[in-house]
Design a protein that fits this description.
four-stranded parallel β-sheet, binds ligand F0G, single chain, about 40% helix, alpha/beta, Rossmann fold
Amino acid sequence: MICIECGAKYLDGPSRYWCDRCNGLLEVVFDLEMLSADISLSWKKRPLGVWRYSELLPVRDPRTVISLGEGGTRLYHCDRLGSAIGLKRLFVKNEGDNPTGSFKDRGMTVGVSKAIELGMKYTICASTGNTSASLAAYSAKAGLKCVVLIPEGKIALGKIAQAIAYGARIVAIKGGFDDTMRLVKDICAVHPSVYLLNSINPHRLEGQKTIAFELVDQLKAVPDYVVVPVGNAGNISAIWKGFKELYNLGMIDELPKMVGIQAEGAAPLVKAFKKGWKRVEPVVDPKTKASAIRIGHPVNWKKALRAVKESKGLFESVSDEEILRAQWALASHEGIFIEPASAASIAGVIKLRDLGLLDGDELMVCIATGNGLKDPKYVLDNYEVRIVRISAELHKLREYLMELELSGNLKI
Ligand code: F0G
């Protein structure tokens, strides 16, 4: 591992999440020249999924791998939504297909395998919901005890239900996500037998970079833009790392622009990017209905700023209203139901088009990070609910269908 701040190098070994010298973020590096000439031949023989790319994952012994069959998620060409918003080549990668319904599973299969390799007994994370669900599931499969810290009352229903069902010990903290994150970092600094599995853990991010590998395999091309909802800023950094590795291996000869989308009330990276700052100023009380990305002080901000700058991409923010409309637009045009934070990526694309930054021919990929069923209450609270009540009689139903036909809503 290498420190992205001071360049200090560390051999793979005991758990380490930040640089001993300067507290900087660490990154896993592979000696790409040591890899066999054409690993892509081996990849082609394996099914699409995280472990297809095992040569580029930091787990030494396949016998320690804890897997629930993560990755291999569907990539949809959204032609109906695309034509409605003037984009011919709009694709959505549905990470809600993963075993616990979010992209976090890609990181957890690697991170929890690493916990086993290192002989850890406990796993821990801070979470806005999906990380806790995923860590709880992988820890259950690995037979490890799992503790999750959540901001009290701020987690979507489906996610908390998952963490309970998978048997995690749940600690609710009075405060926001950033408070839970601080506590988890502090406890892991003094308790080496507890393994931290937030995205500050560089091994977890290695699993998430496989989104980039799968995209290239599925599209047989490099997207012009990859649009990612940003909270703690790990995923956008991981995906960019994945593309760069393919580029450095000579497997692709161009790179995408990375676009990070934050919710307006929780957008410290957007502000820093637009003002050209070198640092991110935390948002003290972040606000958005997209609870998964309600984060004011992203731990990976430095990696994410670097990813967006290197790729010549950008950060943009979207309002809660835009997120709601985007979720509805994707579900009602394409039959893909994603959670509010994920819909930020769709809202972001619509905003880029409105700002005149796109000409409509670009190959655009939105990363739909989590399944819509994670947060059913959001739909019930925010949509105009269209349920009519009738008695159980055939003529009543026929009357209703006639009305619909007259209003032009239904052809029968
Ligand atoms: N989308 C969803 C559905 C998420 O759950 C998260 C993060 C993100 C996007 C942002 O990803 O943090 O890598 O920038 N959820 C974390 C959690 C924080 O605790 O579940 P990021």
